[in-house]
């Protein structure tokens, strides 16, 4: 038995929709895309990779009982919500909304350029929480060839409940999120603490609904090995505690990679 089981989630197999103003991919069932093989993974419920055209976006709509975070890849994202928060989020920004008993918000591309961001939802371990809003800022330099923890469970070491603070954003779910920008030819190692993991390679080079292209990384762990391109992901079932994941940039240029460590 291998210590880690890999199950690839290829970019071209994701749910996909082109609405003109919105070009989007869905890792999990969402909106018109429904696939009972990809409903959720532990508390992880949504990974949408969205590109929104200039001066358009998601009008005011409501959520409850989700932890919702946005990871901005390029452009500027304008956020407004029923808690009175108004903010322009840029490259490196991470916005976390703990929807709890219910919030309304809007998300639009600010300015003359489109915005590319990942919208991620997880299920909280506690129902009917009081809604909260958090923002964090992380530079490319902090992520370069380093696993930077950008989301972590409430109560964890270095996790602040302040609206703005250094360190990871707090989440009421049993997961941590790490981000890295791996240089060409570089290799990173990361110990996995949870029982599950998910890796996603951000589709940074261009919008591509076909077979994945762009940056290329090889991941190894527990006797398994797999090559991922931009937009690809992989489910990881950790069979033996204390496993290490190795990620190697085997393509040209940098690769932006997200790692969910799920308890």
Automatic annotation (TrEMBL):
SUPFAM superfamilies per the UniProt record, alphabetical: RmlC-like cupins
Similarity remark: Belongs to the pirin family.
Lineage: Eukaryota, Fungi, Dikarya, Basidiomycota, Agaricomycotina
Gene3D superfamilies associated with the record: Jelly Rolls
Pfam families reported for this sequence: Pirin (PF02678)
Origin superkingdom: Eukaryota
Binding site for Fe cation: 61, 63, 105, 107
Pirin N-terminal domain boundaries: 13-121
Cofactor(s) the protein requires to work: Fe cation
Keywords for this protein: Iron, Metal-binding
UniProt signal peptide: none
Keyword field contains Iron: yes
Cofactor info, note text: Binds 1 Fe cation per subunit.
Name under which the protein is recorded: RmlC-like cupin domain-containing protein
One MF annotation (Gene Ontology) recorded for this entry: metal ion binding
CDD domains named among the record's database cross-references: cupin_Yhhw_N
């Amino acid at each position: 038995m291998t210590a880690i089981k890999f199950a690839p989630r290829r970019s071209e197999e994701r749910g996909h929709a082109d609405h003109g103003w919105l070009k989007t991919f869905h890792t999990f069932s969402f909106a018109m895309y429904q696939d009972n093989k990809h409903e959720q993974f532990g508390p992880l419920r949504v990974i949408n990779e969205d590109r929104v055209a200039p001066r358009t976006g998601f009008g005011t709509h409501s959520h409850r009982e989700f932890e919702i975070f946005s990871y901005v890849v390029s452009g500027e994202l304008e956020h407004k919500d029923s808690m009175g928060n108004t903010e322009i989020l840029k490259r490196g920004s991470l916005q976390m909304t703990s929807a709890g008993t219910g919030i309304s918000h809007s998300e639009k591309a600010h300015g003359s350029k489109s915005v590319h961001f990942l919208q991620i939802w997880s299920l909280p371990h506690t129902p009917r929480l009081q809604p909260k809003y958090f923002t964090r800022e992380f530079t490319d330099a902090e992520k370069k060839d380093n696993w930077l923890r950008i989301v972590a469970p409430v109560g964890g070491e270095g996790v602040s409940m302040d609206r703005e603070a250094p360190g990871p954003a707090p989440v009421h779910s049993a997961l941590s999120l790490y981000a890295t920008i791996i240089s060409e030819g570089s290799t990173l190692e990361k110990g996995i603490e949870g029982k599950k993991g998910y890796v996603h390679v951000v589709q940074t080079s261009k919008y591509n609904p076909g077979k994945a292209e762009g940056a290329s990384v090889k991941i190894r762990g527990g006797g398994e090995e797999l090559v991922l391109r931009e937009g690809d992901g992989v489910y990881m079932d950790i069979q033996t505690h204390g496993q290490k994941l190795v990620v190697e940039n085997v393509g040209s240029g940098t690769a932006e990679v997200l790692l969910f460590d799920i308890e």
